[in-house]
Design a protein that fits this description.
The complex is a heterodimer. Chain A is mainly alpha-helical. Chain A contains 12 helices and no strands. By secondary structure, chain B is of the alpha+beta class. Chain B has 2 domains: about 110 residues, RRM (RNA recognition motif) domain (Alpha-Beta Plaits, 2-Layer Sandwich); about 210 residues, no CATH class. In chain B, helix 4 crosses helix 6. The longest helix of chain B has about 35 residues. The termini of chain B are far apart. Chains A and B meet through helix 1, helix 2, helix 5, helix 8 and helix 11 of A and helix 1, helix 4, helix 6, helix 9 and helix 10 of B.
Chain lengths: ~190, ~350
């Protein structure tokens, strides 16, 4: 309810808090999904970043990445993709060991989840996290994605390889891949 | 690595049908407090899903391509378009691919055109990021990151300013340095931003009018802060917003409005110290307050709207786009907007004092 013109950010804070509370309290998977999608969409708006950080929503999203429900994973990953654009949220995610959790989503079956994961990894790249994000395993995964049938996946992986690592690293990863000869590791998403 | 050349050539290639083209089922099980103004599916929007490229389905096959593109041009400069003959279409309809110059335009167009009737058909508009080139994708992400950083920074500055104002409320009233002006603009735009995402308003009494053309971004490059409200308006595409044509007041009037806003803000220092409350009590409080708010909101409406109107258009747009075809588009948009604006204003009380938009 945007009463009083909502110029007071506290209204928004309370609303978001209500969402978080409902998410934690409800036993209904459906309600959880809806609230999670709500929160992830709120994370798209930079005006909410501070509130979401205060409510520890970045951690809530990270928790979702290890859920069994594929919607939880997709929405949580989408929320992280939105949040990680903000440098402060990025730092929070990095501190909560986000890279490995997000990296695991690269092998998710849903394309949308994988795309969010790639974008998030790009957002998470800082001077200190660079080494971890350009791990040869991740680069090889991106190389595979860059050959994908799906143009979105192909493009995004290409952007990653262009912007997040240097060409030497790419070349090395390519060599290693040729050495392996098999497509072990991360399967491509289905849809 | 995919050669960029490949992607460029495939950019306008034979389209595939992707899952995200489908309209998702609307969610009907939301509790009241999470209900939006429009029925929506459970879906998370990310920058990956958005695109300068839109696909418009359901266009009646009666030779109305020009009209369709003119409609699109209301929301921003169209860079390229073509019919997607290969795409499976319903009988007697056509599918079009439209590339907007700016993502913000595509957003506006999608929001305003989707599910709207057009020459007897109902349009379905969706983003088609799979038509992007690698470079398109790259720029899209870069723009988004830059925009977020700028918005967050502005918000922090605005907060500082607000604190400063709270300390000495009168002194700033006279100040007219460009910086304070900018800060006020941001602030006054805030309610609007908030409203965009609030997703929980039940009003529908405002005239539903299209957005002003997004080319304003170009004209206002020299004033980066000025572009924030407009851009942010788009920053939350997935939430229904009720746009109105922002009748442009003169710069001075908008400043006065902002001052009023400022005074109000100063009078009600925001209770920023809200912290966690036990959950059940909190929910009850929330409910009670929402009911109260519903009673008050009717009387509050006029005041609420004031800060939204003025500062969106700090200066009249300049004419020259430095490109013949763009100039033609701009002229077309202006003419159409003039027509649109001649629709009588439904809220004359709130807007009486302001001159109509000059195009």
């Amino acid at each position: 309810m945007w009463k009083k013109g909502s110029s007071e950010g506290s209204d928004r804070f309370e609303y978001l808090q209500t969402l978080v509370t409902e998410f934690q309290d409800t036993d209904s998977e459906e309600a959880k999904e809806q609230v999670l999608a709500n929160l992830a969409n709120f994370a798209y708006d930079p005006n909410n970043m501070e509130n979401l950080r205060e409510l520890q929503v970045p951690d809530l999203f990270l928790d979702m990445l290890t859920e069994e429900n594929a919607n939880f994973v997709e929405f949580g990953m989408g929320g992280l993709c939105n949040l990680s654009m903000d440098p402060e949220c990025r730092d929070v995610i990095l501190q909560s060991n986000g890279i490995s959790l997000v990296t695991n989503c690269l092998s998710n079956q849903r394309e949308e989840t994988v795309l969010s994961a790639i974008t998030t990894l790009m957002n998470l790249t800082t001077t200190s996290s660079h080494a971890e994000i350009t791990d040869p395993a991740i680069l090889q995964c991106m190389l595979r994605f860059s050959l994908s049938e799906s143009p979105r996946l192909r493009n995004l992986a290409a952007v990653f390889l262009k912007d997040c690592c240097n060409q030497e690293q790419v070349a090395r990863a390519e060599q290693q891949m040729q050495g392996q000869q098999t497509a072990v590791g991360i399967p491509l998403p289905k849809d | 690595m995919a050669a960029p050349g490949n992607n460029i050539s495939s950019c306008w290639g034979v389209p595939d049908v992707y899952k995200h083209h489908e309209q998702k089922k609307i969610c009907i099980s939301r509790p009241k407090y999470r209900e939006g103004r429009r029925d929506r599916a459970v879906k998370v929007y990310t920058i990956n899903l958005e695109s300068n490229y839109l696909m418009i389905q359901g266009v009646p096959a009666i030779g109305v391509m020009t009209e369709l593109i003119q409609l699109c041009a209301l929301y921003g400069a169209v860079e390229e378009y073509r019919p997607l003959d290969e795409y499976p279409a319903e009988e007697f309809t056509e599918v079009y691919l439209v590339k907007f110059q700016k993502l913000t335009s595509a957003r506006a167009a999608k929001r305003r055109m989707d599910e709207k009737s057009f020459y007897g058909g109902v349009l379905h508009v969706c983003y088609v990021p799979e038509h992007e080139t690698v470079e398109d994708t790259r720029l899209k992400l870069q723009d988004r990151r830059r925009y977020i950083i700028r918005a967050v920074r502005n918000k922090a500055r605005e907060k500082e300013q607000k604190e400063a104002v709270n300390e000495k409320p009168t002194s700033s009233d006279k100040a007219t340095t460009s910086e304070t002006v900018v800060a006020r603009h941001d602030k006054s735009a805030d309610p609007d931003k908030t409203r965009n995402t609030s997703n929980i308003c039940h009003y529908s009494g405002f005239p539903l009018l299209p957005l002003p053309p997004q080319e304003y971004h170009y004209y206002r490059h020299e004033n980066p802060h000025g572009t924030i409200p407009t851009e942010d308006k788009m920053g939350t595409l997935h939430n229904a917003i009720i746009e109105r044509v922002q009748s442009s007041s003169s710069y001075q009037t908008s400043l006065d409005k902002d001052r009023e806003t400022e005074k109000r803000l100063t009078l009600n220092p925001s209770p920023a110290a809200v912290r966690f409350v036990p959950r059940t009590t909190h929910l009850e409080n929330r409910k009670r307050r929402m009911e109260e708010a519903a009673e008050h909101s009717l009387t509050d409406v006029t005041i609420n709207n004031e800060p939204l109107i003025g500062p969106k258009l700090p200066e009249p747009p300049k004419l020259d786009m430095e490109d013949g075809s763009l100039n033609t588009t701009v002229k077309l948009i202006r003419n159409t907007l003039k027509k649109v604006e001649s629709v009588p204003d439904l809220k004359p009380v709130a807007k009486k004092m302001k001159p109509r938009r000059r195009i």
